[in-house]
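Problem 12. The chain below contains 100 residues. Write out its predicted structure in token notation.
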Amino acid sequence: MKDEKAALLGDHEAARRLTEAGVLLPCMCGGKASMVCFEKCGVPSGDMGYLAAIKCQDCWMELRRWALRKKWAEASARLAWNTRAPILSAAEMEMLDEAT
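Solution.
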């Protein structure tokens, strides 16, 4: 299975590999995502750092991460964007139904 498909199905190790390769998965709505990174003063510390923002071009969902270094902000945002919740099995879905 390709890393993209595995990550979309909730494989966190595949998401990490994609992040290290600089890949952004599509948005949860299926739209194309893009990232911008710029200098920004941190709150409440006042330290200068970088804000990485990933935004879907279709639904406008946005994710932001701030860090002292640009590469840290970009990697953190990319990993958060690429990490999806695992798909539940039928047995797990039944357990949820029974609990409610």
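Discussion. The longest helix spans residues 70-82. Students who got a different answer should revisit the alignment rule from Section 12.3.
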